[in-house]
Write a structure and sequence with these properties.
The chain is an alpha/beta fold. Helices cover about 25% and strands about 30% of the residues. The protein has helices at about 10-20, 45-55, 60-65, 80-85, 105-115, 155-165, 175-180, 215-230, 260-270, 325-330, 360-370, 395-410, 445-450; strands at about 10, 40, 70-75, 120-125, 165-170, 190-195, 210-215, 240, 275, 280-285, 300-305, 310, 335-340, 340-345, 375-380, 420-425, 425-445, 455-460, 465-470, 480-500, 505-510. The strands form 4 sheets. It has an 8-stranded parallel sheet with strand order 9-8-5-4-3-15-14-10. Strands 16, 17, 18, 19, 20 and 21 form a 6-stranded antiparallel sheet that branches. A 4-stranded antiparallel sheet has the order 2-13-11-12. A hairpin with a 2-residue loop joins β16 (about 420-425) and β17. α5 packs parallel to α6.
Length: about 525
């Protein structure tokens, strides 16, 4: 991540000694030593150069950890839950927010029982209503009569997730209808250096350090909001931004201060993945929860608008990372970057809870699972709390059924403990006896060797000869292939038919579904 500015850190004691409240911003820092998550592209690079560079890109430790999550959850909750809107107006009466039965432990239990590893809460959606008592806006839970103004959904959420073994993530929408109404969002202010946190009247905080970061008026508001969230609620494992702009008149725009926002997140939550308008994780390009048949984690990207990572092609391009894509994207490519896909989808038709909507069927969810986790992506399934502050009973039941279905589809790895022979581009497994197989799960060792496989076949030894039973293109962190009819064989192998560089297969699992 190349930032146009670097934060300047000064202790509270030193700041007081200077007699100033503003700090000089310094030049951008060098990337971490050994960081190979992106490699520059030059105008004279040939196809061979591009392929070689792509083969050398490696994920960061935080990206590897994120890709291992596989199933993550979204919790859209806020004033829209009570107004019935999907995009709020910003002038809602905070008192409309009345989740009198709020039970975030129930959320955590349901998600854990559904097989999820991390949950992201909509701390601030486009309306600007904040689910904790912020110092920087009145559009918060503190201005609702719910729990006599002492409620804090974020606190309850974060504590519950950790109590039940889930990681906690936060979504802070860059758009803010409330701040627009208050003349802060899209007010045309120039970027200036701001001291973060910006102390307010009666502020009892004594930060160990202040940070000088360049931002517009609204960008500084977001920085202060991020500071509260990332310093007062324990470890945060994912910070989720989209690229939404507020519904503002033509000719007005808020240029988001991505470089400063990213810098603060990296400083306060260094292990947190920044998604999906961020350098760690990208949006897959649709809201149906399905990845491309061949999903690459190494993509051609360009850097725009204060350090924002953007597609060199387009977010919905059918082919984002093949050799052909690398070549066609070259004129607009700044880097080849490890930028894995997140597949977002809601269990309902809408993102917020609506009482007339029913959850997707188990069949729909398992198709989404195979189309996301099974295609080198991470699933982000939205399960919205209702007006009582609970996950609806039909949704809870469907989550449990979903986990049970996944277990029936992939019940036991028949290759676990079996004799293996590994040679360049091949892994052969001897099950010891003939067994019926109709599911394959594969993975490359992405952490050490990146994503290399461009094509492969799975073969069974039948009637004295190796016989192809299925084939595909990419593998990456996770690839699951299904057979319509089981095949019985003792010996199985994966044979790589095309690759960018030497291949390391980390997983070759064989399964017989119980569906």
């Amino acid at each position: 991540m190349a930032l146009s500015r670097r934060l300047f850190v000064l202790s509270a004691t030193a700041l007081a000694a200077t007699g100033t409240t503003t700090l000089p911003a310094l030049a951008a820092p060098l990337p971490p030593t050994g960081d190979r998550s992106r490699i520059p592209v030059g105008p004279d690079d040939t196809e061979a150069d591009l392929v070689r560079k792509a083969s050398q890109v490696r994920p960061t430790a935080r990206q590897v950890a994120w890709q291992k999550l596989e199933r993550t959850a979204f919790l859209h909750f806020g004033v829209n839950t009570f107004t019935g809107l999907e995009w709020g107006t910003g002038d809602e009466d905070p008192n409309v927010f009345q989740p009198t039965g709020l039970d975030t432990d129930q959320w955590a239990r349901a998600l854990r029982d559904g097989g999820f590893k991390l949950a992201i809460l909509t701390v601030k959606h486009h309306d600007g209503f904040v689910l904790y008592p912020s110092r920087y806006t009145d559009h918060t839970v503190a201005h609702s009569s719910w729990r006599a103004g002492e409620g804090d959904v974020l606190r309850s959420f974060a504590d519950s997730m950790r109590r039940y073994g889930l990681k906690a993530g936060v979504y802070l929408s860059p758009a803010d209808e409330n701040q627009y109404l208050h003349g802060v969002y899209a007010n045309g202010s120039a970027r200036a250096t701001h001291t973060i946190p910006t102390l307010v009247d009666g502020d009892d905080r004594a930060p160990d350090a202040f940070y000088a970061l360049d931002a517009t008026d609204y960008g500084a508001h977001m920085l202060n909001t991020l500071y509260e969230v990332l310093t007062e609620y324990g470890p945060i494992d994912e910070v989720w931004f989209d690229g939404a702009q507020g519904r503002i008149p033509p000719g007005k725009v808020e240029d988001y201060d991505w470089d400063s926002w990213y810098t603060l997140v990296r400083t306060l939550a260094p292990d947190a993945a920044i998604a999906v308008t961020g350098p760690d994780v990208r949006w897959v390009g649709n809201e149906g929860g399905t990845a491309r048949q061949d999903e690459w984690s190494v993509l051609p990207v360009k850097e725009e608008q204060y350090g924002r990572t953007d597609w060199a092609l387009s977010y919905d391009t059918p082919d984002e990372g093949s050799r052909t894509a690398l070549v066609s994207a070259q004129p607009t490519t700044d880097y080849l970057q490890w930028w894995p896909a997140e597949c977002d989808v809601s269990i309902h038709d809408g993102w917020f809870y609506h009482p007339d909507q029913v959850p997707k069927s188990v069949e729909e969810l398992i198709d989404i699972y195979f189309g996301s986790v099974g295609r080198n992506s991470v699933l982000l399934l939205n399960v919205p709390p209702d007006t009582d502050g609970l996950l609806a009973a039909p949704d809870v039941a469907r989550l449990r059924e979903f986990r049970e279905r996944v277990h029936r589809e992939l019940p036991e790895d028949l290759a676990r403990g079996a004799r293996r022979v590994v040679s360049p581009g091949r892994v052969t497994v001897d099950l010891g006896r003939e067994q019926a197989v109709d599911r394959f799960r594969l993975a490359e060792d992405i952490g050490r060797y990146g994503q290399q496989v461009e094509g492969f076949v799975v073969e069974a030894y039948l009637d004295g000869a190796w016989t192809e039973v299925t084939r595909a293109g990419t593998i990456g962190a996770s690839r699951i292939l299904l057979l319509a009819t089981p095949v019985e064989a003792r010996r199985w192998r994966i044979r790589v038919t095309a690759a960018r560089d030497a291949v390391r297969i980390a997983e070759f699992g064989l399964y017989r579904s119980r569906v």
